[in-house]
Structure formats: C-alpha cells, structure tokens
Design a protein that fits this description.
Layout: H1 3-15, H2 36-40, H3 54-59, E1 68-73, H4 79-89, H5 93-110, E2 118-121, H6 126-132, H7 136-148, E3 151-152, E4 157-159, H8 171-178, E5 182-184, E6 194-202, H9 206-218, E7 223-231
Parallel strand pairs: 1-7, 2-3, 2-6, 6-7
Antiparallel strand pairs: 4-5
C-alpha cells in the first residue's frame, strides 16, 4: 500500500468510522463486518453441522446433492435484510466476501465439506451482470473458497437464458421461469469433481434446482453440494 493510500485509509477511518451494517453500532476495526452483539445474536441455522438438514431435505425429491446448507435465516424488515440487500443490490461487495469467509470457516470446521474440489458461484445472465455491475455470489464464493483452500470456477457454468425476476412469482411459476436457463461449457473441467454451488438467498430453491439439473446432465460424474448464505423459513419448510 502506498503512503497516500495509507494516509487516506487512516483519514477515512476518522471521518467515516466503520459501523455495523446490521445495527449501526461503531466497530473497533475496519476489518470487522459485524459488532460482537450482532455476531452473538445472528440468526444462524446450524445446518452446516448436519449431513441431513432442512436444506438437503428441500432438494432430495428433485435433484441429488451431496451436502446442503445455509448460514443464516433470512429475516425480513430489519438489519439482516439490509445487510443482504446491501451486498446484493448496493455494491457492498466487501460485505459479501467477509460473510463468505465467515461461512467458509464454519463449513471447514464441520468436516462435511472437506472433499470439495472447487466452488461455483451461481451465474448471472450477461445482461443482468452488465446492469448490476457485479455478481454478488462470486464474492461469497471467493470468501468460502479462501477458507476451504480451493479455487473458484467462474466460467464453466453460465446463465444462457435471460429470465425475469423471481421475487414475486409463486413456486410453480418460478420453476417454469428458470427451466433451461443454465448451461455448462468446458464440461471436462468439472468431470469427477465435487462442486460447491454458492448462492445468496434460498427462497423456493427453483433456481438452484435448474442449475443443478444442467450440471448433472452435462457432467454426470460430478458431485454437487449447495451453500446458500441465507434461507427463508418457507424455503426450507420451517414454520415461522
């Protein structure tokens, strides 16, 4: 880091002290993402410790996965929603990377993901990527892969068809909307590998199912696991 960058970093820390994106409390270090209080009260699922959990059960009737997890329950209308929407829609990419490292550390400690060969972020269609400017799943994947000690494959799985937003669609329409939306190129890169497919929020799981189906068809000997940063209680069939 240059002297100028070091000076600006120090000055910005004084003028714009880092705050917790969930509650707004001041942070002691710019390297922190969340304050101790929010870390302690985070809506963690604990799914990463269990080989059979509500995420794996969500997919078992439609596609085969090795492992499945979500770090957080998606909590609407509060600081945790602001956190997720911040990196998803408002260019807070560093938040996603740090959340990914937190998640990746827990996945590593669980021992269930030790044989993952590479991390695959859920791809965006090129038009949506151009409009948004970045793919938040890639930053989550970077953090997870760093902790697992594996590489990120950003290019083998692509979104080949543009689809409208899933946000307000019922489950049946979501599945139809993303049918055939994904494709695999250079399938040889994924042969006989254990892939960890990373997404931000698991709502109904329809998009993940469509992507898993595309990978399984193109690379039958690939093993696929799923890691969503957050899951809605409805998405994993838990009552509120």
């Amino acid at each position: 880091m240059s002297i100028l960058n070091s000076w600006w970093s120090a000055l910005s820390g004084v003028l714009f002290p880092p705050t917790c994106p969930v509650c707004g409390a001041a942070l002691e270090s710019s390297e922190q993402l969340l304050c101790p209080h929010c870390m302690l009260l985070a809506p963690l699922t604990g799914f990463w410790r269990e080989a059979i959990n509500p995420v794996t059960e969500r997919f078992e009737s439609e596609v085969r996965i090795e492992q499945g997890s979500a770090l957080l329950f998606f909590v609407e209308g509060g600081g945790w929603q602001r956190l997720i929407h911040g990196f998803k829609y408002h260019n807070r990419r560093l938040w996603a990377r740090r959340l990914g490292r937190w998640y990746g550390k827990l996945l590593r400690e669980s021992g269930l993901y030790d044989d993952v060969d590479c991390v695959v972020p859920m791809p965006l269609h090129p038009l949506k990527l151009l409009w948004r400017g970045y793919n938040q799943a890639e930053y989550l994947a970077d953090g997870i892969a760093e902790e697992l000690g594996v590489k990120v494959d950003r290019h083998s799985v692509i979104r080949s068809r543009f689809t409208s937003s899933q946000a307000r669609k019922p489950h049946r329409e979501r599945a139809a909307n993303v049918e055939g939306a994904f494709a695999v190129r250079h399938a040889e890169r994924l042969c006989d590998k254990h892939l960890l497919l990373v997404d931000d929020v698991l709502t109904t799981g329809s998009t993940l199912v469509a992507c898993i189906e595309a990978i399984a068809e193109a690379v039958p000997d690939a093993r696929i696991s799923v890691a969503a940063l957050a899951a809605t209680r409805h998405g994993v069939n838990l009552s509120t």
